């Protein structure tokens, strides 16, 4: 009688018996090959200095046009202070899915939120811009009808648009470039608020008042400020998800392109640091895998910092490293499945699953089985995990370098950092890696906390809308407490 043993069980048997097909020397070789994915503190300190210079150039009136990091002024100058009242809609667009939210604010810190997720079909992501905004308006109408909202009075709407946006006012912003797989025609260099308003008008069944446009990092900062009961030291918003970006509170006099209300001392600046390194500043630490991903992307040569960090690319970096090492007979005895050879097949969620293994490589074996890799050895599993660890650690350390540059520049002694995004949420060690490295790179007298922002970008959009309505009564504003 022939007994068929499942590949996972066979590998686990090898784990307990020591019956593996690869030698321990293979792991040493893998570590040598992965050295390019490790960053020293010296390298990170150099990147911090370059990031600081890029941010200062982005803030300068004369240096901004040539700056890679654009530091767009958001025109958001006030935090929630607890006096906001009413119902507010939010539209949160930043990837293949977008959300519509309804937030109600009332007395005694009353807060209620409803939300719904809508999908942006693939053909719309790369189709005409008018089709994208018509699709969004259609979903807005469906949401409003489902929740029986009164359409007689114009509902305030905050619009989170999580792509590089050059703002010239709280309700006016021009798309600089598409990222994260989007490439809709007729939108770059256009005012996205105007395009959304036109789509809403075309439907004739929507009555909305767009009160603010913002990016997801700004929404995250606002959400955390509200979550901490109107904390006045929430000075940074950070996104580590499909993309990667940060915003922070800057003194008005340093934001030379700001032409808003200069009686208020501070304004949130959207760094758009995902483009850091597009001028070659990252070349010394980029690997052949980074170069391949960049060259094969929809926007080659752009968003290079983001491509080394974010969830859209992390799994693909791991896959390229696995394929490369297998082709050198250093993994799986040189055998590769068609799935593993397929671009984009190794999702970033697999990286979290593998690193979340508690024992026996159970999750690693499961992921490899899904990828068509059967009967991997124990050393293969260990090496795949090591590749994942190198890629995610590098991602966390790059974010830490950027974050430390912001903290050192602001020089506030106590800072709350609002963080959102799937990588930060679901990777088992990302938070720990970031805290440890940021502490090493930040001035010793600066204390900071990382706070997970629940529904940050969407909730934040509604809160910015609420603050904008509140600010129609000037006596109710309170600004930031940064010095």
TrEMBL record:
The keyword Signal applies. GO terms for biological process: glucose metabolic process; glycolytic process; intracellular glucose homeostasis. Residues 30-225 form the Hexokinase N-terminal domain. Pathway: Carbohydrate degradation; glycolysis; D-glyceraldehyde 3-phosphate and glycerone phosphate from D-glucose: step 1/4; Carbohydrate metabolism; hexose metabolism. Residues 236-467 form the Hexokinase C-terminal domain. InterPro entries: ATPase_NBD, Hexokinase, Hexokinase_BS, Hexokinase_C, Hexokinase_N. Keywords: ATP-binding, Glycolysis, Kinase, Nucleotide-binding, Signal, Transferase. It holds the Pfam family Hexokinase_1. GO terms for cellular component: cytosol; mitochondrion. Its EC number is 2.7.1.-. Residues 1-21 form the signal peptide. The keyword Signal applies. It catalyses: a D-hexose + ATP = a D-hexose 6-phosphate + ADP + H(+); D-glucose + ATP = D-glucose 6-phosphate + ADP + H(+); D-fructose + ATP = D-fructose 6-phosphate + ADP + H(+). One of its GO terms (molecular function) is fructokinase activity. PANTHER family: HEXOKINASE, HEXOKINASE TYPE 1-RELATED. Belongs to the hexokinase family. This is Phosphotransferase. It comes from Acyrthosiphon pisum.
């Amino acid at each position: 009688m022939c007994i068929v043993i499942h590949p996972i069980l066979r590998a686990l048997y090898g784990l307990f018996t020591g019956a593996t097909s690869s030698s321990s020397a293979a792991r040493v070789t893998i570590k040598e090959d992965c050295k390019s994915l490790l960053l020293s503190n010296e390298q990170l300190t150099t990147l911090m200095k370059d990031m600081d210079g890029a941010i200062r150039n982005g803030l300068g009136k004369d240096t901004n046009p040539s700056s890679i990091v654009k530091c767009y002024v958001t025109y958001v100058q006030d935090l929630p202070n607890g006096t906001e009242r009413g119902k507010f809609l939010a539209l949160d667009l930043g990837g293949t899915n977008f959300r519509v939210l309804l937030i109600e604010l009332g007395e005694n810190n009353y807060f209620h939120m409803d939300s719904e997720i809508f999908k942006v079909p693939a053909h719309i992501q790369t189709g005409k811009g008018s089709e994208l905004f018509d699709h969004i308006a259609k979903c807005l109408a469906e949401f409003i009808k489902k929740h029986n909202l009164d359409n007689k009075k114009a509902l305030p709407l905050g619009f989170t648009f999580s792509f590089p946006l050059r703002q010239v006012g709280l309700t006016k912003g021009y798309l600089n470039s598409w990222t994260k797989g989007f490439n809709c025609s007729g939108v770059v260099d256009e005012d996205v608020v105007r395009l959304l308003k036109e789509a809403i008008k075309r439907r004739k069944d929507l009555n909305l008042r767009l009160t603010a446009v913002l990016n997801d990092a700004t929404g995250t900062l606002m959400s955390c400020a509200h979550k901490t009961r109107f904390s006045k030291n929430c000075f940074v918003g950070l996104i580590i998800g499909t993309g990667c970006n940060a915003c922070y509170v800057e003194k008005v006099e340093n934001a030379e392109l700001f032409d808003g209300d200069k009686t208020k001392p501070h304004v949130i600046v959207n760094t758009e640091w995902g483009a850091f390194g597009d001028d070659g500043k990252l070349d010394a630490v980029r690997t052949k895998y980074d170069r391949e991903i960049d060259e094969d992307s929809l926007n080659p040569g752009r968003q290079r910092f983001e491509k080394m960090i974010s969830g859209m690319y992390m799994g693909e970096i791991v896959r390229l490293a696995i394929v490369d090492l297998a082709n050198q007979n250093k993994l799986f005895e040189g055998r590769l499945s068609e799935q593993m050879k397929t671009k984009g097949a190794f999702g970033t969620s697999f990286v979290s699953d593998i690193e979340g293994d508690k024992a026996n490589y159970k999750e690693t074996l499961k992921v490899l089985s899904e990828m068509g890799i059967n009967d991997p050895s124990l050393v293969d599993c260990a090496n795949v995990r090591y590749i994942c660890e190198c890629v995610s650690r590098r991602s966390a350390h790059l974010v830490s370098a950027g974050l430390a540059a912001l903290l050192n520049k602001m020089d506030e002694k106590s800072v709350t950092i609002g963080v959102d995004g799937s990588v930060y949420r679901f990777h088992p060690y990302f938070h720990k890696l970031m805290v440890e490295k940021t502490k090493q790179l930040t001035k010793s007298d600066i204390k900071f906390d990382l706070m997970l922002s629940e529904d940050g970008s969407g909730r934040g959009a509604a809160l910015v809308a609420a603050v904008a309505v509140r600010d129609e009564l000037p006596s109710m504003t309170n600004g930031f407490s940064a010095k």
